[in-house]
Design a protein that fits this description.
Blueprint: H1 5-13, H2 18-55, H3 59-64, H4 73-105, H5 107-115, H6 139-145, H7 151-181, H8 184-197, H9 199-204
Helix pairs in contact: 2-4, 2-7, 4-7, 7-8
Amino acid sequence: MFCSDTDLSSKEESQLPGVIVATKDGMIASFTTMAVVATLLASTEGVFLSIIKSSLPNPSSAQSNPSPEPSSPTNLRAMVILTYLAIVLNIGASWSALRMIDILGKMTFLVAKQTVGSSPEGSGGEKTYLFKLDEVRDVAEVMRKHGIAGIWSFFSWHCVVSLCLGSLCVIAQILLYIWTNEDWRVSIVVTLLAFITSTPIFLSLFL
């Protein structure tokens, strides 16, 4: 007799402890959000890049009409560099998040594959994963024991670090634009606010 797809799915899911299943679902939600945020930032920076490029001085027009430029070309080029960095970093973060979502979705299959032929006698052909929470150092240690190891740990850190650095490039770009085009009082206030609001980004790189 063949098992239905629902029974097979339930059997595979039961091979993971409830806390691991909940952690997996939470990580999928987190990486999905990071992928969306990174994609939105990359798209926004693409629009901003076209605006900055239109503001850069054209050498041919500068020779025919040598009028003073309203903004420093050096600052504009610095903003272009920050924009390119933000686009590349956010695209990398988005792809790493998508790969993590993919492997997290295959987590129960990988665990079921690893347990084939490795179950102790009398266990009914299934291996039960038991662990004590007070003996676990962090979430990463438990997830590594359940299939998220090797290159997948790299994708996880790559996503977080790329998104943080891409966000810092966006903030630096905004500050450079404000200091170039706004009054110094406005620049100081925005800089202080940017420092306060970007503190979680800096902490995310080390925690």
